[in-house]
Amino acid sequence: MGRFWRQIPREGTIGIFDRSWYGRVLVERVEGFASELEWRRSYKEINEFEAQLTASGCVIVKFWLHISFEEQLKRFEERKNNEFKSYKLTEEDWRNREKWSLYNVAVNQMIARTNTPYAPWTVVPSNDKYYARVHVLETVINAVETEFKKR
């Protein structure tokens, strides 16, 4: 977790991380880049890291933007067929799609084992992009307002 300490925003600022310290229990696990011992140990390390962050005043708001297997295919096809968005879709995306069930197991375990009172997960149904965006913004606002009321 040491490499992430350097990336934590200073007091009074906001930082947004995409995957961040969850890489080991998700991508590295599924792709075989981490041993089972390493990714299992990471759950405890993640929880301890987030406990330290919240103890030092950080507000942690975590989201899993869940889309269905069918919705993912629909979005992939739309990107593939749109000359302005096709660059966003790679062969790796298609390859990873073939591992959907493995990622699904890893995601469910990740959420179950790292959902804590001080750093809870919010699973956002995201087949509807507008709903997902509004839900995320409302959740962030509520988390920040709640923390400000405590101080």
TrEMBL record:
InterPro entries: P-loop_NTPase (IPR027417), PPK2-related (IPR022488). Gene3D superfamilies: P-loop containing nucleotide triphosphate hydrolases. Residues 3-150 form the Polyphosphate kinase-2-related domain. Pfam families: PPK2 (PF03976). This is Polyphosphate kinase-2-related domain-containing protein.
